[in-house]
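re: ur question from earlier - yeah i can do the single chain one, its not a big deal. heres the input i used so u can compare w yours
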Amino acid sequence: MRYLSTRGDERLVSSARAITSGIAPDGGLYVPEQIPVINEEDWASLLTMSYQEQALYILGKYLSDFSIDQCQHCVQGAYHTGNFDHADIAPLFNIRDHIYSLELWHGPTCAFKDMALQILPYLMTTSAAIIGESNDIVILVATSGDTGKAALEGFQNVDGTHIIVFFPEEGVSEVQKRQMVTQQGN
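and the output i got, formated as tokens:
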């Protein structure tokens, strides 16, 4: 699977290069060259899988330059009960006939952003290893709310990474500010 910019630059890059770059040279976002097709049988199979198994299956479709062991490392490092307070990670509850609720708030900051920001550090450090990048990764975040805390939590104590979070002094709630300025970790 290769990735290209949303702004028209037709240079194709690997998933590892897209992840470590973050933004394409022309300022666009990287998107897959094509969307993988999932057949009806695989959809039915996905319904019986755990969240971790589903994540591994889907990541395998998009991260063709990652080995299965590297994908497993990312999924197992991010989605476990040490990071999420529910064994199903993102449990699906049947409220009533044909109405379901997918709970995305069981992560360390109780924000849906934990779903992505718990795995991103693993994807970034694995991508850096794949492309032979030896420099530390610096994450720069600008937020007006939950993103800062979720990013700080996700990248805490991740070797080879540093994170800087900017937020407006009067633009976040007192709770959000305290969550960010009291973050523990390296």
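The first strand starts at residue 2 and ends at 5. not sure if urs matches, ping me
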